[in-house]
Structure to design on (1027 residues):
């Protein structure tokens, strides 16, 4: 084996020496043979002739010898590559066009795939993610009671979790985690540190959370069951990233005390590097805390309320447990647990209980709320990118085809001189694959930059996101596979056609025999490109139009010179009884700042990514199932966000906790729950039930300011004063979490660049724990709600432009080629008196016909494709006239540009020279 | 002149090995020797001799050295290697079996 290798290597590297030896050896043989014949009596001349006859073709024998020595494959490949490189260098325009086309096509695809890989295909960085199973198939958040989604459970109460854990031996471990930690930041400060308190993410998890995932601590220890018991010393695990970023990996953090939501907690360990929790998120948890610590730390009561669902459950299943019977068992167990709660104990509750069920889903990627949000966008982008790649491939096939035709004479000559067809095809294929390979490498660079750009566009401002732009092994494999496939794809056809050339063709002038212009295959490719480009352009136009519509929609609010400051009085340790005074202080302190005009305080603000929904009933009317958003707000809130009161009055300073509870409803509310023309003022409303509809008296109506999503239509809402509670509530004030308001709206008389700092200092002046969890201008907050739409619109425009560019290049290439081929014909026409304008018309007609055929195919396809993206468009259901006309105009213009350059060249042909050249 | 027979496929290697078992030889001499030993019946296609030699050399069954010929010329000499000897025995055996079997089928044995 080794000797064989040495033998081959010598053949390869000492090629000339080996060749010389071969020459010598054969020469010796021939001389011996000639001598033999001479001895037998032939003349020298006859002997040589006889010897040559006996021996056969010397070149052929040498080639066979080389093959026997095993040098052929490697050597000829090296030779082919050298030759191909020389050929490519000789045609820089062609090479650069192909490389750019490939790089953009492959780059765009690899960039999208990087993102897909990072978001959709990413598995949790835990031990054996394949054996994780999640209880539930939806991502409802963040806490709630009663029946949701027709009984499809994915969120559970603490009580239900404990019962399931106890009674499901099919799982090795069953862990629970807070569903909505993202909306409930915690405040943390290291004991004895000079750093001010920071608002960070903290997730409350079961004691076996880390052991379920099979994780080992980076330092110290991870949470254990013993940490998650009532009265246990409060313990927390810090994420590796937080430890590195804010504590530079200081070993003394482990075992030290942190003040979390003003309570002392011991950091027992550091989670492993790269562990970002149980779900992909733009803000992964910095601290992991036991569930039992939550009532103390977060002052929330729902932890031990059997009616409140707030936990997701993921378990590690034992091997060889069948999922179907397990799912039935889980459902039965859950019904058993729920039957004891008061939500399901009524007669009506019992019938609803029959609908309760749990669907088991793979848990390898954890909770897939982010994936759910991005899947449709990413799939759409993948489709668009693959269309662009298709156009790119068509382009390259075309370019290679043109090149193959141009080299036909050369190839025919080589065939005539005895080159084997297989050898020529191999050589042309080498050239294609080489091009594809180089394109793939440049494409990777584009992919890397593109993926970074995509990430920045997709997740603006996210710093801690566990998604990286660096292409992984699978992305590399994808890009290389794609480029190779492309190389083979566009290499085969032109190579095959070129090698079909008979030797006779070489001797004939090939320009004469096909005056029809470019062959059908080439023209079909251009038609395909035009058609696909139209589809992409129409798509880009629709997304742009959709975005315009969304952005120009009247949100019925005022955003100029307004700032939204998010806080968490709950995390800062305020009890409910202290809140009225706190809100009063905040109003006063902010009003004391020069330039501040209005200070709004509310539970949620317009166009924020969160809201609080409940059912509602008008007193004395039948219950209509309708979700309504409820906002608690102070007196200046409506003014601060620019919501106008259209009837009655807004909330004002009279509406204190002791005054009669009132409500202000929006116009959609009136439209939905009252008869046309009916005056809603004076009616009472509240949550559905026996007594609660009498809770609040309607005193005013406001216009329909957009909350949460600009796409929402006729969303019914009502607003109640910050501290007023339902008359019918039996909940003691100490347990009423709705009184915690998380948003301040500051309206100023001019733009303030330092408002964030001002807000922080003002709040810290009230209480150092009153940290800012999020600060944005109102305009930025609104813009954030459109970021996904903007991303899609920008990318579809980008890809549409790319497709247009590629198609224009393709059209230009074919037209230019046609002109070149028809030079003699055009020369004759002009010699016979054709005008230059006629010649221009002749060429342009060819290009325009191809475009028209492309349009004829593209228009119906575009019309059909709209239905696949309709769900991602806002108030657009079909490819409308404007978009269609725009796309066709752009394509026509591109065709004109692509055609006019070769057309003018054709018109400037000198008839005499054209004829002589033939 | 005796009538020549085209070599059946695969037998060329065997003949080369057999010829070299008598001692080292250059390519031309091998073709001459085969012809001689077969009483001029077998004639090696000269074009296929050299690829076969190079193939055997690559497989390590024969080794090659440059030497001086009888008429004082530089020539490439081939020699049977140790594994070449073994291979020759194997192939001779196989050949014997083959001829017997073929003869049996033809009903001449």
């Amino acid at each position: 084996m080794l000797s064989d290798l040495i033998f081959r290597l010598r053949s390869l590297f000492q090629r000339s020496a080996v060749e010389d030896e071969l020459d010598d050896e054969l020469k010796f043989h021939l001389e011996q043979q000639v001598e033999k014949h001479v001895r037998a009596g032939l003349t020298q001349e006859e002997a040589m002739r006889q010897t040559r006859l006996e021996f056969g073709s010397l070149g052929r024998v040498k080639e066979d010898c080389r093959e026997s020595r095993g040098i052929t494959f490697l050597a000829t490949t090296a030779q082919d590559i050298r030759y191909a490189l020389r050929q490519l260098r000789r045609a820089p325009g062609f090479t650069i066009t192909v490389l750019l086309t490939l790089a953009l096509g492959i780059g765009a695809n690899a960039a999208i795939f990087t993102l897909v890989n990072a978001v959709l295909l990413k598995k949790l960085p835990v031990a054996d993610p394949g054996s994780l199973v999640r209880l539930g198939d939806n991502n409802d958040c963040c806490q709630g009671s009663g029946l949701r989604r027709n009984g499809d459970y994915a969120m559970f109460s603490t009580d239900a979790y404990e019962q399931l854990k106890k009674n499901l031996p099919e799982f090795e471990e069953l862990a629970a985690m807070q569903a909505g930690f993202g909306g409930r930041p915690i405040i943390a400060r290291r004991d004895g540190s000079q750093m001010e308190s920071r608002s960070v993410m903290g997730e409350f998890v079961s004691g076996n959370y880390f052991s379920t995932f099979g994780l080992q601590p980076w330092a110290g220890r991870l949470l254990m069951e013993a940490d998650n018991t009532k009265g246990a010393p409060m313990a927390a695990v810090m994420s590796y990233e937080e430890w590195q970023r804010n504590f530079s990996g200081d070993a003394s953090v482990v075992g030290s005390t942190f003040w979390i939501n003003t309570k002392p907690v011991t950091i027992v360990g550091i989670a492993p590097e790269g562990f970002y929790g149980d779900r992909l998120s733009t803000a992964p948890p910095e601290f992991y805390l036991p569930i039992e610590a939550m009532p103390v730390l977060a002052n929330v009561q729902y932890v031990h309320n059997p009616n409140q669902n707030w936990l997701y459950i993921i378990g590690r299943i034992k091997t060889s447990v069948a999922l179907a019977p397990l799912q039935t068992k889980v459902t039965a167990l859950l019904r058993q647990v729920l039957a004891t709660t008061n939500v399901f104990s009524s007669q009506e509750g019992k019938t609803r209980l029959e609908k309760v069920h749990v669907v088991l889903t793979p848990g390898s990627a954890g909770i897939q709320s982010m994936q759910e949000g991005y899947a449709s966008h990413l799939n759409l982008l993948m489709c668009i990118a693959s269309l662009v790649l298709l156009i790119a491939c068509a382009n390259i096939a075309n370019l290679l085809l043109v090149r193959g035709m141009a080299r036909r004479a050369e190839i025919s000559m080589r065939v005539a001189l005895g080159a084997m067809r297989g050898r020529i095809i191999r050589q042309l294929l080498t050239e294609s694959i080489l091009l594809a390979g180089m394109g793939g490498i440049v494409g990777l660079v584009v992919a890397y930059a593109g993926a970074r750009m995509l990430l920045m566009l997709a997740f603006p401002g996210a710093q801690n996101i566990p998604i990286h732009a660096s292409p992984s092994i699978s992305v590399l494999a994808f890009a290389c596979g794609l480029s190779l496939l492309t190389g083979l794809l566009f290499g085969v056809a032109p190579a095959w056609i070129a090698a079909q050339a008979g030797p006779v063709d070489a001797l004939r002038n090939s320009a004469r025999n096909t005056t029809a212009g470019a062959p059908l295959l080439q023209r079909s490719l251009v038609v395909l490109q035009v058609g696909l480009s139209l589809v992409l352009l129409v798509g880009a136009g629709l997304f742009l139009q959709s975005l315009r519509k969304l952005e120009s929609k009247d949100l019925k609010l005022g955003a100029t010179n307004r700032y939204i400051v998010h806080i968490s009085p709950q995390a800062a340790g305020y009890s409910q009884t202290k809140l009225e005074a706190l809100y009063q202080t905040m109003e006063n302190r902010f009003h004391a700042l020069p330039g501040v005009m209005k200070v709004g305080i509310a539970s949620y603000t317009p166009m924020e990514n969160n809201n609080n929904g409940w059912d509602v009933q008008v007193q004395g009317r039948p219950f209509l199932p309708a979700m309504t958003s409820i906002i608690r707000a102070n007196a200046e809130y409506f003014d601060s966000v620019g919501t106008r009161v259209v009837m009655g009055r807004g909330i004002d300073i009279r509406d204190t906790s002791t005054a009669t509870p009132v409500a202000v409803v929006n116009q959609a509310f009136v439209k939905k729950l009252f008869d046309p023309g009916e005056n809603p003022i004076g009616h009472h409303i509240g949550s559905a039930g026996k007594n609660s509809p009498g809770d609040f008296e309607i005193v005013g109506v406001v216009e329909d300011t957009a909350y949460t999503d600009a796409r929402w239509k006729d969303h019914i809402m009502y607003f109640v004063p910050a501290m007023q509670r339902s008359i019918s509530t039996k909940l003691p004030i100490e347990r009423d979490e709705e009184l915690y308001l998380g948003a301040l709206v500051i309206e100023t008389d001019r733009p303030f660049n330092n408002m964030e700092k001002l807000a922080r200092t003002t709040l810290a002046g009230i209480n150092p724990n009153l940290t800012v969890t999020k600060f944005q201008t109102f305009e930025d907050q609104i813009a954030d709600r459109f970021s996904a739409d903007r991303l899609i619109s920008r990318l579809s425009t980008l890809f549409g432009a790319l497709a247009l560019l590629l198609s224009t290049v393709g059209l230009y290439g074919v037209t230019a080629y046609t002109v070149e081929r028809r030079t003699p014909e055009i020369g004759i026409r002009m010699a016979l008196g054709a005008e230059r304008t006629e010649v221009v018309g002749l060429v342009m007609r060819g290009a325009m016909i191809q475009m028209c055929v492309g349009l004829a195919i593209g228009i119906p396809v575009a019309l059909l494709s709209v239905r696949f993206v309709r769900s991602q468009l806002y108030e657009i259901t079909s490819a409308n006239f404007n978009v269609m006309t725009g796309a066709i105009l752009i394509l026509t213009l591109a065709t004109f540009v692509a055609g006019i350059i070769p057309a003018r060249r054709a018109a400037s042909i000198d008839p005499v020279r054209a004829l002589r050249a033939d | 002149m005796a009538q020549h027979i085209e070599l059946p496929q695969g037998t060329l290697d065997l003949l080369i090995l057999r010829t070299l078992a008598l001692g080292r030889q250059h390519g031309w001499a091998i073709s001459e020797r085969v012809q001689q030993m077969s009483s001029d019946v077998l004639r090696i296609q000269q074009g296929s001799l050299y690829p076969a030699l190079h193939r055997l050399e690559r497989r390590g069954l024969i080794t090659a050295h440059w030497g001086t010929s009888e008429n004082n010329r530089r020539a490439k000499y081939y020699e049977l290697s140790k594994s070449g000897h073994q291979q020759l025995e194997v192939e001779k055996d196989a050949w014997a079996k083959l001829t017997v079997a073929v003869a049996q089928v033809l009903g001449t044995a």
Notes: The radius of gyration of chain B is 15 Å. Residues 65 and 72 of chain B are 15 Å apart (CA to CA).
